[in-house]
Structure prediction request, 521 residues.
Amino acid sequence: MDSWLITYLALVLVSLVTVIILALDIRSMRKKQRVKRYITVEKCYKCNYTRTRIFEEGDYVGAKGKFTCPQCGEQMTIDAVYVKVEDSVKKLLLIRRVREPASRREGKEQQIHEK
Amino acid sequence: MVTLSSMLDIVLYSVAYAAWPFDFLNSSSREGSSFAVWIIAISILVSTIISILAFLGIAQSMQLRVWKNQVESRLRIIESYLHETESIATNKLKKLGVERHEELVKRIKDFFLISPVSIEPIDIIKRLEQILRTGEKHIEKLVSEALPSNVGEPVRKNLTTILAIVNGLNTLYKYLRHLLLLGVKTRNAMLVAQVWMLIPFYLRIAKAYRDAAETIAKGLPIGDSAGPLAAYKLSRIAKPLSRIEEIAEDTVYGVYELERRRVVIIKAKGPGSTVGRPGEAVEKLIKREDIARGLSAIITVDAALKFEGEETGITAEGVGVAMGDPGPEKIRIERIAARLRVPLYAVAIKMGLEEAITAMSENVVKGVEDAINRVLNLIKERTMPGDTVIVIGVGNTIGISQYPTA
Prediction:
């Protein structure tokens, strides 16, 4: 084989490896770009009914909740505040919809609604 | 001499090899091959020169330069974290109406503690405690004096913690910069190498500190709040026998009935950012005859550092005092347990360093539920009905109140 061709092939190979490494690096960086959601859990200590909502400044565990219990009408209490790290909304809407079949997705949504 | 001659051989060979296309490859059909050979010849020459330079110690100085540049770039990141944390503190102070906010931040930023003399161990705990408390009170007083009187206690406590974070980040940044500059100044490659090797860990700590400042500014519970959260949740499932009372500075206790035992639950006073003084609280409670007489166990629940590979939020139980303080609080409980011959049980909720000082994750909340079950099992298995048990929720109580309210 001509040496010129070998040099050319070697250059192509090196460029390919560089591109692959860069792509993997960018992918790993993208993985880190996740959304933090602060969740407040409200609980009725009478009937153990729980409800989650987005955290608002001033919420703390032991404080009176925003809601009353739909089952017994008791004032709910904040039982936990935590952070949930999730994929960005864009990723959730686009990628998950492509990957998951519609029937399975609907089932999951129904489960969340029931909770 | 052998090395020198072999090096000379390499140089001569490479020069000859580099000259080869001029002598033997003059035909136009092999122009491409001539180009490739030139590249190979030049690369051999360059590597030979570098090898020679390595023997002259130039390679080490080049390596030092590489390490220095890499450490510098990471130090710049740590510096940016410091500035971000400073701006969080400054904005919070401005929002609360503090006029000389920059002066306050600057004063606390460079605050330092001098550790007590350790070559004389007698009463070292007392001396350490004195220094730590003076430091705490001094910063708290500076913040309180600067803030308007209508600012609530939780906000004041959170602000004090944010300023303590600024102080910690500033110390870390300055210390690493000092080591780097000293290494470069004295051309000590080993010193720079050590900083280079350790800086990824420090970078993680610095990032966690920056995130912690954000979390505390919002008043969210952090991973370290797992202990106080467990104490709160345990008090919710128990039957209160008394109101919550403050027994030591920033530390509250309540007496409850649980599984036919009298359970005394101690935690830091929330929802402001404080760890309280659990050791002092136990010491004071033990002086009460009704508590000391039937005491059959002291259980501590705390967040603990997990090993890499372990899942966040898993729990484990053991013996001893689960407490990450420098010593004064922990030793009080150990001394009481030894004097009264009371067993010490510990329940740990595992998490990483970053998770311990940033917003509490869902896994830690699940871990807290698991820890409560472990505490209940310990109470049922290791004590008898009618006994008294002390349960301490150790950790920073930011974002977590107490039940029933004082």
Summary: Strands of chain B lie at 239-240, 245-248, 251-258, 261-268, 295-305, 315-319, 344-351, 388-393. Confidence is low (pLDDT under 50) at residues 1-5, 24-29 of chain B.
